[in-house]
Amino acid sequence: MSLSHREQRILAEIELGLRECDQAFARRIDALNAAAEEGPSRYSSHVSGMELVCVLIAALLLAVLPVIVVLHAGRACPAPARTGSSTSSGAPYVAPYPPPARSNGCR
User: Fold this and answer.
1) Greatest mean pLDDT range, 32-41, 57-66, 75-84, 89-98
2) Residues sharing a CB contact under 8 Å with residue 94, sequence separation 6 or more, in sequence order
3) What angle do CA 33, 38, 44 make, to 5 degrees?
4) For the chain, first and last CA: distance in Å?
5) Buried b / exposed e across 39-54, counting CB within 10 Å, b at 16+?
6) CA dist., res. 29 & res. 31, Å (int)
7) N or C: which end of the chain has fewer CB within 10 A?
């Protein structure tokens, strides 16, 4: 939105008055205006290659870690080791009935 002719004239008068009263302030304003003409680079920060690599590695780990956890949690649980005494013949004790089937996870 542009300023009207009257508003531009008022601002020019204010600027002229400030330049006459405070020349040090006028020099600082001129330096700021010169820096602004250089472009938006004065607001940008420079990122090193190492910082970029670290951010990419962190993003990759955060993307892969949940997948690993889900895949690991979905694996079947190993059968529990039977702790029974051996029979007199030295053969291990075998339970008379098979263990119940497990549906969702380890217990």
Assistant:
1) 57-66
2) none
3) 105
4) 69
5) eeeeeeeeeeeeeeee
6) 5
7) N
